[in-house]
Specification:
The chain is mainly beta and 131 residues long. It contains two helices and eight strands. 9% of the residues are buried.
Length: 131
């Protein structure tokens, strides 16, 4: 049994270090910051073409980033690159101005800037109907 354990773990780590595609929905690494004026998200997506490989969308209060790193056929050799779909969803602050979100891509970093409305403009008073 003990002789089997290193072989099992070795096979598993070999699979992790192989050039097999990513599992569906692999998570994108990101960092974010929040000020009174904006919510800024920076996502690490090196080696991608923002016109073909990256999509940024907003649905309600959720900003989604979808990307795909395509597998390039190799003749022989070793590759530690990971390929496949990557995605990440982030809940936006309540006062996010979803109509004016801007995104840019430079040197492998996708940056999304979400402007924030002032506290007064973020919500609205709901009238209460009487009986």
């Amino acid at each position: 049994m003990t002789a089997l354990m290193p072989r099992l773990f070795g096979d598993f780590t070999d699979w992790l270090e192989s050039d097999r595609p990513l599992l569906p929905g692999h998570v994108i690494r990101l960092e974010d910051s929040l000020t009174d004026q904006e919510y800024r998200i920076r996502a690490e997506l090196p080696g991608m073409d923002p016109d073909k490989d990256i999509q940024v969308s907003v649905d309600g209060a959720v900003l989604s980033i979808h990307a795909e790193r395509r597998y390039e056929e190799q003749v022989k050799g070793r590759s530690e690159f990971r390929y496949g779909m990557l995605q990440r969803a982030v809940r936006l602050p309540g006062n996010a101005d979803a109509d004016n979100i801007k995104a840019s891509y430079d040197k492998g970093i996708l940056e999304v800037v979400v402007p924030l409305r002032s506290a007064e403009a973020a919500g609205r008073q709901i009238p209460i109907a009487g009986s």
